[in-house]
Design goal:
This protein is mainly α and 97 residues long. The longest helix is centred in the first third of the chain and has 15 residues.
Length: 97
């Protein structure tokens, strides 16, 4: 599966009913927010550990949860991606998204 396909699959797992067009829009927006949009056609098996962590965060964001429980969300990420995750979490916490 590609990064975009995994991101779209999250809606099937959660039972959310969205049109395919909306699934694609939400998936691309979430991938853009965590910095994975440029590699959305890459197979997940070729992602680094940090990229897989970012994809997991994008999956969480796609379902718009009311509460996020995160345990060391930036561990195993390089400085750039750690900053990206923190910035995205701050955006969510302040309601700017």
């Amino acid at each position: 599966m590609t990064v975009l396909e995994v991101q779209m699959y999250v809606h099937l797992r959660t039972g959310q009913r969205r049109s395919v067009d909306k699934q694609v829009r939400v998936a691309r927006r979430c991938l853009q927010n965590v910095g994975l949009f440029d590699i959305n056609d890459r197979l997940v098996t070729y992602l680094s550990g940090g990229q897989r962590r970012l994809l997991s965060l994008a999956n969480l964001l796609a379902v718009s949860p009311h509460v996020l429980c995160l345990d060391e969300p930036t561990s195993a990420l390089d400085v750039r991606n750690g900053y990206r995750v923190c910035s995205q979490l701050l955006t969510i916490a302040t309601g700017q998204d």
